[in-house]
Amino acid sequence: MSLGDFFALASALVWSFSVILMRVAGYQIPPMPLTFFKSCVALILLVITLILLKQPFVVDLSGYDYLRLIVSGAVGISVADTMIAASLNRLGASLQALADCAYTPTITLVGFLMFGETLNAWEIMGGLLVVSGVFVGAVIKTDVATRKDMIIGIILAASAHAIMGVGILMVRDIYREESVIWVTGFRFFVAVFAMFLYGYIKYPGRLKNKLLLGFYRRDMWRTIIPMAILGPFLATLFWIAGFKFLEAGRAAIYNQMSTAFIIILAYIFLGEKLTTRKALGVFLALTGALLVATH
Which contiguous run of DSSP H or E holds residue 193? Predict the structure, then answer.
């Protein structure tokens, strides 16, 4: 495996742990305050990292580049992350993987349209195995309360991943030249600012319960702080680093493995059913990832 392969797969593994914690936290904290809290924690950690590594807070970029980063952060984090949290509240952590099937094809298509990138035969075969494994392992209707919840949850998750992918690829030329830590930090700064501005306008006088709830729920800190460290901080760094060193489609195949990891972790930590179908899905996904990694 190359360095890019490692980063992309590591992102999937770390993110899967964060999703499990997000699922637990989602029972008590609504999507928007949960997203705001974890984004704030990630931003603080990224600032500390920049200071420790003695990296600059301001980078010499054009106004157009900064505009792209602002759009990428506001849409790709603020909107997409909130949609993912909302979908988790409607779907089980493993059933959400069904909607995630849109992730790899979407990223591959965007990579082709924006950069002319294509996958080789082995990567296509491995990608098909991963996506089919996710699909097979996730089509379980008993994980949600109602059909309406399943439909809305799938639409939210699929849309979020598409938005997230486009948001990060639209600035790939920037993080291939600049520090991944700085780019990640700037995007989270934009996301935090955008969410706070939205909350301040929409919920005047009610920020404590509507946006800042995560900061006041100290009983949930042991869940949501590790969630923020693993997901928005570590997983996002690995995620962007994967795109920095790999073609978009290849990185997306490894990222898609998070759904297989989530099925396993949901069984271990959340007590969700590990059916024969889910086990088969995990096997197909792991086989596909191995195929990509060895070719």
Answer: helix 180-202
Amino acid at 188: F
- Phi–psi pair at 102, nearest 5 degrees: -75, -15
Q: Is 135 helix (H, G, I), strand (E, B) or coil?
A: helix
Closest CA to 87 of 151, 133, 134: 151
- Asked if 90 and 267 count as a contact pair (C-beta separation under 8 A), the reply is no
Distant-in-sequence contacts of 119-122, Cβ < 8 A, 24+ apart = 119/247, 119/249, 119/250, 120/295, 122/291, 122/292, 122/295
**Confidence (pTM):** 0.84
Q: Give tens-digit pLDDT for 59-106.
A: 999 999 999 999 999 888 888 878 877 887 777 655 666 667 778 887
Which DSSP helix (H) or strand (E) runs through 132?
helix 121-138
Name the 3-class secondary structure at 243: helix
At residue 93, the pLDDT reads: 57
54: left (phi over 0), alpha (psi -120 to 50) or beta: left
Cα 143 from Cα 12, distance rounded (Å): 22
Q: What angle do CA 209, 213, 219 make, to 5 degrees?
A: 130
Q: Is the pLDDT of residue 118 over 60?
A: yes
In this predicted structure, what is the pLDDT of residue 34? 92
Q: 3-state SS of 109-121? A: HHHHHHHCCCCCH
Task: Count CB-CB contacts under 10 A for residue 287.
Answer: 14
Angstrom CA distances, 281 to 52, 61, 129, stand at 42, 44, 9
